[in-house]
Amino acid sequence: MMSDLQNPWLSRPTTPPPDMGKPIVAVPSAFGPVAPQRGVPAPDQIDQLPIREQQASPAVWWLGAHGGAGESTLAALGSGWSAAAGHAWPRSATGEPTPVVLVARSNAAGLRAAQNALRQWGAGLTPSTVLGLIVMADAPGRLPRVLRDLLTVVGGGGPRTWTVPWVDAWRLDKPTAVPVPHEVQRVIDELRALPGIGAAGTTN
């Protein structure tokens, strides 16, 4: 009987098998627009986020669509490769589009602020590339249906949407002082799996 190694009809591996000890993180697919599109109505001027010059060039900017969105928390968890944008679209000194992840709370005001930010980007009024939207829980428990429906509508304005559950420990201590919840780590891992992100960038 011919062995597998002798059988010319079986393809042979050209690379060693992956390290089974390391979990493979799938690159999250984009389910919405990945670039500004013609015809997107811009939000009123008062509802638009400002644009601010930035000298740093992290792999990712966290852009809170409103105060208290959670951009500082995510920046602390992503120290060394990400930075908080300070509620303003970051404009690079080189003129290259800046990679941005929008951040908002899951209450109605937060989701509407995220919608305005996505409309501003979708209308081509920002210097950034939006990678997605992270929605941080504003309270423990399941979202009411009206907010779940609103989240579905808002999330459709960007490439992808992640949700972060309520983390009670963050109320008592710094995010970096407590173990990172599995759901939060998954979001970070999926984001860093996107092409061009990885460990690139510096906040200096």
Q: Overview of this structure, please?
A:
22% of the residues lie in helices and 20% in strands. It is an alpha/beta fold. The chain has one domain: Rossmann fold (3-Layer(aba) Sandwich). Strands 4-3-6-7-8 form a five-stranded parallel β-sheet, sandwiched between helices. A two-stranded parallel ribbon has the order 1-5. Strand 6, helix 2 and strand 7 form a beta-alpha-beta unit. Helix 2 packs parallel to helix 3. 33% of the residues are buried.
Ordered list of secondary-structure elements with their pairings:
Blueprint: E1 51-54, E2 57-58, E3 60-64, H1 71-77, E4 82-84, E5 89-92, E6 98-105, H2 108-122, E7 128-136, H3 145-155, E8 161-164, H4 182-192, E9 201-202
Parallel strand pairs: 1-5, 3-4, 3-6, 6-7, 7-8
Antiparallel strand pairs: 2-9
Helix pairs in contact: 2-3
